[in-house]
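A sample copied in:

***
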Amino acid sequence: MSDNIPSTLTTVPTEHEAAMIVALLAALGIKAHTTGDFTAGFRAEAPGSVQVQVKAVDLPQARQALVELTQTEGRQESIDEEGTSSDSTWRILCRAFVIMSLIATAAYFLFALLATLRQP
């Protein structure tokens, strides 16, 4: 197996969750990317998921980083062979981040709309 072949580290339901994982890996010097962004969430109006992929050579270190990230209250979260997480705490935090992002976007839109309506 070539060291440069992409390997799936994990699959998550939103691109925001995947982006946070990619950012964590980047901070550790591991190059990662996502696939499936356009089929997740509201863009395609269909259920989908986003895969976080890393080089095969970086997969063990990336898995360890993901395990350390998902530790909750001193216990290690179970991660199956495909890298899918079973801990709901991480997902709840990511969904809260998505909701806050949507609220901020709506607030910005309303502010821009009000500013446009106030112009003479």
About this structure: Residues 6-87 form a domain with the Alpha-Beta Plaits fold (CATH 3.30.70.1530). The chain has three helices and three strands. The CA atoms of residues 26 and 41 lie 24 Å apart.
